[in-house]
């Protein structure tokens, strides 16, 4: 590690952080006895903390974001050049990287046509929700305004995104919520809801359950269905074959817009540009954020079909016809400038192919861990987006205690590997170790990650 900061500077940083930063998703009481970890530098798949310790980052910046890895000079150079020339312009006027990235992105998304820029996954999803509501208001007399979302999916942190989110723990304490969001069942076959079917038939059955909700609510009241292609924070849930074709059929049958939340899967995570492309889905909305610029700049996109876009142009004389929405920092050029380079890197370095090959290796290693450790109840994954569900008992599938799950993560950290764990305190849900290394991972990296998990599981569970 080659740091410009001295040891003194770094201990000051730790003290400043401790005194002033409110960290995400953490009980701060713990920082009375341990220091917060400050990540100081990253290169490729590796990061270094303030104490100079090196880690393999198996979750791409804690939340599956840094798809092309750390320390990419060409992204930094492109952003620098762009922001010196023109850093920001918002509203009705465009920017050079905004136009060029939209063009490049849509080349990878046949059937899609328009890109609406904002800054976070939550915001991208809110934009789509607002578009659905406006389509309902203008074209369906305000009737088709309900938005369906799935148990265990997550779409963001705003009040409306929480209303459309399937993880109850995140919602408790933040109500009241806006109306018109309706839940459909999840499709995690390991935790079966329909015992008489399996495989593709299970997928079709889980999709049929969506149709049942639509019929119960009244198809003419349902405007959209919002789903993650592979559920991320809800437990790395890969739907069985049979699920997506049936979902598509149902949406078409009832004239329901299909919104795919690609905030995690987008830009290569599952070995295709987008998760939905694994199943030949034809969405009406696609939202994306994390991997779009791999965290080098904040950018998110709400992408629509031309058909959706046209619905906002029906009456040029009517000032209520266009999308009455703006995101100030959707006018930052750093995002699309970084995103253009990010895409070029994925393409030029063949990272989709590497993702598939390394994903296969990772799944193989995880399957071996399942053979060895009774606590590993299920392993799931698509590309470099993998999970290992931990259960205290394979028969009852009772999740392991939260303290044990935390201990596994800490033991991996002690072995120099940063991993994640999902939903550990959600009652009735799953405790799943989460792995999403950068798409540049090598076989040695993959093996080092699973070796650390192996050691951690032995240490914690024997
Ligand atoms: N959708 C999904 C599937 C996510 O995983 C997340 C973030 N974890 C979001 C939306 C929200 O993104 P952000 O945190 O950028 O608002």
Category by helix and strand content:
alpha/beta
Query: What is the count of β-strands?
Result: 15
What value does the Rg take, in angstroms?
22 Å
Measured between the Cα atoms of the first and last residue, the distance is 35 Å
Cofactors, ions and other ligands in the entry: 4'-deoxy-4'-aminopyridoxal-5'-phosphate
Instruction: Enumerate how many helices there are, as a single number.
Output: 14
Strand content range: 5-15%
- Arithmetic mean pLDDT: 96
How do the helices and strands follow one another from N- to C-terminus? HEEEHHHEHEHHEHEHEEEHHHEEHEEEH
Q: Could you explain how this protein is built, in words?
A:
The protein is an alpha/beta fold and 462 residues long. Helix content is 38%, strand content 15%. The protein contains 14 helices and 15 strands. A 7-stranded mixed beta sheet has the order 4-10-9-8-7-5-6, with helices on both faces. A 4-stranded mixed beta sheet has the order 1-2-3-13. A 4-stranded antiparallel beta sheet has the order 11-12-15-14. Helix 8 runs parallel beside helix 9 (243-253). Bound molecules: 4'-deoxy-4'-aminopyridoxal-5'-phosphate (PMP). 4'-deoxy-4'-aminopyridoxal-5'-phosphate binds next to helix 5. 4'-deoxy-4'-aminopyridoxal-5'-phosphate (PMP) binds at residues 63, 120-122, 125, 154-157, 228, 232-233, 261, 263-264, 289.
